[in-house]
Amino acid sequence: MKTTNRPDEWKIEQGMSGAVLPVLDMTGPQTKALDPQTFGPLTKNEAAIEAVGNRDVLFAAERKGWIGFVEWENHPEKKESAHKLLKAQTWPPNPEFQLGPIPGTNPVLPGTHWKMWHHAIGGELTKVPEDSWATVLKEKHPDMLHLLQFPYNGEPPKRLVTAKEVTPNSLHFVRNHGGIPIIDKEDYSFVVDGLVKNPQTFTLDDLMDESQFPRMEKTVTIQCSGTRRIEQIRLYPGQGDEIPQAPWAEGAIGNARYVGISLKKVIKACGGLIDGGKHLEFYGADTYFKDDKTMNYLVSVPWSKVKANEVMLAWEMNGEVLPRIHGYPLRIVVFGYIGARSVKWLYRIKGIRSPSPAPVQSMEYLYFPQQVGKHNFKLTDGIQIQEMPVSSAIMSPWTKQVVIHNGKIRCKGWAYSGGGRWPERVELSADGGFNWYTIPVENLSKKRKWAWRTWEYELPCDVEGWVEIVCRCWDNALNTQPPDVRTAWNWGLHVTSSCHRITVYSVNMTRPVTQARMQEFDDKGIPFGPITVPLAFPSQSWDDYEKFWREHDPRDAEDELP
């Protein structure tokens, strides 16, 4: 008998392959099933590509000692040539990682688009994807979770996120927006121009002259606005571009000690801002793409932030020269803001009147209302994300894990609040958020204005079976976290600041029956997990079963005799 069902029909019906579900149009008297978008074969207009010219000449190296760098912002003709190259061919669709299973690979996502775009433009960008990956393998810990191979996005595994209060360089998360340029310190300089009185060029040696610029050293937590995004994806998918919406977990946060100088001192050395300048725009040497257009990575922060000595130029990280993957030779570090504002591979600072109109500032990192999405969103609907809200996460145990304990579950994690606020109280609940236990101060790491606090706590838990452990933080302004993911959901899947919730299977060894059963597992040499595997031995002897019913009421109630 023939069937019209696909082999995976049940999976589709249950929402496990949502990308192939038809859209239901109920605007008329009859419901119509509309097929989802499909993509045809890739095309390539060789004549149009040839007409652009010699790419090795058009996009040749511009500065001695700068490999993989193309200056786009001062060369509209280069932007136009790159745009023609990108429009001359079609590209494969984004991988589906929200409405279907996330690949079980490491790297999780390859970044195919950005690799192809770099290769298509050629010239100085030709080898950037390969050189960048080589830098990842050289500088990062072998246990890093590579969420996106290129541009590189990676976080440490949970067991290592809070292993130390100060995150080792090799384990600090990386959220790159482009390839990693290779820049020699001896050939490095950056310019400060725009709405400043005296535009100047500075070398790293200039900045290190303590007679001109007092040294600054700060412990700063940098957090990606996508931290814990996977919680939104699992329940309510949203915008699905693999670059802005990489499936971050709880490790897209890191705490490091930076050495450098206050940007305020540099602006003052240039005579200050003039002609209504109120913002500083930062230019990164990496190449960024948006809507078939090519550009450098540009964002801005207000002068008020710089004036408060809350923006630094850093060349050292945790007592070592700034790693190349983190912006060597010089990067911006913005205290208390989303990581996207802390530009790496800095080559220009420009005084401007209003926030940067560049795509990363005006089109990305926007927090939309809940009823805004693909069907209706406008850029002006979104709040520009700057300061990070209060947040926290449980690093151990992991969700769906079996925990054998003696009435207390050993938990550890982190808590953070941006904007110069700090975690004042961290609480845990073992019953889904009904009753809360305050983590003692001595179980929290040191309180710092711009840094996270790591914590450990033995959470009382008498209940057995599935329990929901919840974490929440209160900062010094008494801000706390929304109760659940639904209240935090937004189309861009940013800022998952809701209470962190995990479910674990509780096995309480203070219960005599449980203790006896677990001893049976040990005696027979049978592992307890996973819990879904049927019990390999009788749960109760037949004699014990019959004895119980002889001594207690029968299993079935009987009518009383008249």
TrEMBL record:
One of its GO terms (cellular component) is mitochondrion. Residues 384-505 form the Moybdenum cofactor oxidoreductase dimerisation domain. It comes from the Eukaryota. GO terms for biological process: sulfur compound metabolic process. Residues 177-358 form the Oxidoreductase molybdopterin-binding domain. Keywords: Metal-binding, Molybdenum, Oxidoreductase. It holds the Pfam family Oxidored_molyb. GO terms for molecular function: heme binding; molybdenum ion binding; molybdopterin cofactor binding; sulfite oxidase activity. Its cofactor is Mo-molybdopterin. Gene3D superfamilies: 2.60.40.650, Oxidoreductase, molybdopterin-binding domain. CDD domains: SO_family_Moco_dimer (cd02110). Signal peptide: none annotated. PANTHER family: SULFITE OXIDASE (PTHR19372:SF6), SULFITE REDUCTASE (PTHR19372). This is Oxidoreductase molybdopterin-binding domain-containing protein. It comes from Ophiocordyceps unilateralis. The lineage of its organism: Eukaryota, Fungi, Dikarya, Ascomycota, Pezizomycotina.
